[in-house]
Design brief:
mainly alpha; 12 helices; 75% helix; globular
Length: 324
């Protein structure tokens, strides 16, 4: 097997283990937590026999080992059970909500990269000047504001001014709009959660890119380009930028993971019907199968992000593809 094959095999093995561990731990924690999906029936005056039969039908009377073995056997067939809260298959429900999260995450990532990458080049290049210093200050401020606080502040601003929707993915009358109208309505509802997610992420990208570019500008081949009379702007964009992207590529998986974890709080505050909101609803209703399904799918998304990060790093540094 060549170097690239070994590289991919190691990474895929790690990613499979990541998904297994995350989903297993989520099942264990949900099982150990007090209460279950039938607990709320106690407040309706249901008899003990009724509660026992309901727990037996849902498999809640089984031990953790029995439930885990059954869950794994079904998960291999892509059957993740049925949500006790929604009465729907977990797989279809999770995929539907994950698609909504993907829309938000993709838009926020594009905005963050579109802002953070050129800002990092500006602040990290010797010709940045006062503008570069201003960018660094703005990044420090953005990094100190977590997505939860930013989303709360933006939601409050939207509620006070009426300039933007305060929550949801579409307006109540969006169903009567045409395709273009629905897209515009979706874009209008994306503003608040996108800004809340993109600002700290853009600041992170700016800081990483700025430091990487500053270190690259000290390399001997950059000094040689200066000696040959190459214009400073050409040195930054043609000679230094691509090597300076390697540190950013190496942590892109972590950035994607941060985007996913940050969207959990933002989706709850802005009522965005995504995977984070679904996970919160599953936890509050003690829907164990739905909790495990959300955690497993979230681990898959994180694993794919890590794999993309590894492939990007391997493309930037061919030495990583060489056999050990």
């Amino acid at each position: 097997m060549d170097g690239l094959g070994l590289f991919l095999t190691r990474r895929l093995t790690f990613l499979v283990l990541l998904v297994v561990v995350v989903s297993s731990v989520s099942l264990l924690l949900a099982h150990l937590a007090p209460g279950d999906a039938v607990t709320e029936l106690q407040f309706t005056g249901a008899r003990a026999e009724t509660l026992s039969r309901a727990r037996a039908r849902a498999g809640l009377d089984q031990s953790f080992v029995q439930r885990y073995a059954g869950w794994v056997a079904n998960a291999v067939r892509l059957d993740f059970g049925t949500s006790s809260r929604y009465g729907r298959p977990v797989a279809g429900l999770v995929v539907e909500r994950a698609a909504n999260s993907a829309v938000l995450a993709l838009v926020a990532l594009l905005v963050a990269v579109g802002i953070g990458l050129p800002a990092g080049v500006l602040s990290g290049s010797p010709t940045g000047g006062p503008a570069g210093a201003l960018v660094r200050l703005a990044s420090l401020v953005s990094l100190s504001l977590p997505p939860l606080l930013t989303s709360l502040a933006l939601a409050l601003l939207a509620a006070r001014t009426g300039w933007l929707p305060i929550g949801g993915m579409y307006s109540p009358d969006a169903g009567s709009l045409g395709l273009l109208g629905r897209l515009l309505d979706l874009g209008w509802h994306l503003v608040v959660p996108t800004i809340a997610l993109a600002l700290p992420l853009a600041a992170t990208i700016e800081r990483l890119q700025s430091r990487a570019l500053a270190e690259t500008m000290a390399e001997p081949y950059i000094t040689s380009a200066h000696a040959r009379g190459v214009a400073p702007r050409a040195i930054v964009w043609r000679h230094a930028l691509r090597p300076a992207l390697k540190p950013l590529a190496s942590v892109s998986g972590i950035i994607v993971g941060g985007l996913l974890s940050g969207s959990f709080a933002v989706e709850i505050v802005t009522a965005w019907p995504g995977l984070g909101q679904l996970m919160f609803e599953a936890l509050t209703s003690r829907d164990i199968d739905l909790v495990a399904g959300c955690a497993a799918f979230g681990a898959v998304l994180l694993a794919l992000g890590t794999l993309v990060s590894d492939l990007a790093l391997a493309a930037a540094d061919p030495r990583l593809r060489e056999p050990v």
